[in-house]
Design brief:
It is a single-pass membrane protein. The protein is 29% helix and 19% strand. The chain has 226 residues and is an alpha+beta fold.
Length: 226
Amino acid sequence: MINKHQPIINNFLGIEKLNNRLFGHFGERFAHTDIRIPDFSDYRRSEVQDPKNSSQKSSEARRAFSYLITGSTAVLGVYTAKTAVTQFVSSMSASADVLALSKIEIKLNDIPEGKNMTFKWRGKPLFVRHRTEKEIATEANVDLSELRDPQHDTDRVVKPSWVIVIGVCTHLGCVPIANAGEYGGYYCPCHGSHYDASGRIRKGPAPLNLEVPYYEFPDEDTVIVG
């Protein structure tokens, strides 16, 4: 059975829905006046607590404080970097036992005049030559203009009687033969380099003189190399 009042009810419901669509939003609350504004007073410096006062009056003091903080941070950073670098370099430095192995002590009494002895030092041959008076005079009088790698004999020795050089040819790293060659010093058979009794290159492809290591004489009969 159809209700005769149904059309009226439907019309009323339709108008109600339309009113809700048109005017429903006006009933919603968009103003959030209950939200609390953040207060940063605890983080502000005392000079700028009052918003009514100009910040220009305290700008110098605040700028100086900022510079102080920046400078202190920079100094701390530099000191930290220095400490790190120092520790890194120290870790790479040779220990005492390694340094001890890098030196060799040689008794000179064991080397007769006019003879050459070979020692092993830092994995390389070390030539120690006891020169005669004739060899000393000959090498001291060599004209430097004749030398490929000019060095006076006195610049290569601490004591004229003793020549101490590393026995590695400066051409390709071969080991020269002592008391040999055209100049009576050292001769490299690999490619024919001739060195004199001061270890200076005189003939052949080698570009430089034999290397002279650091050494010292603690007494008359002993030399320490390294």
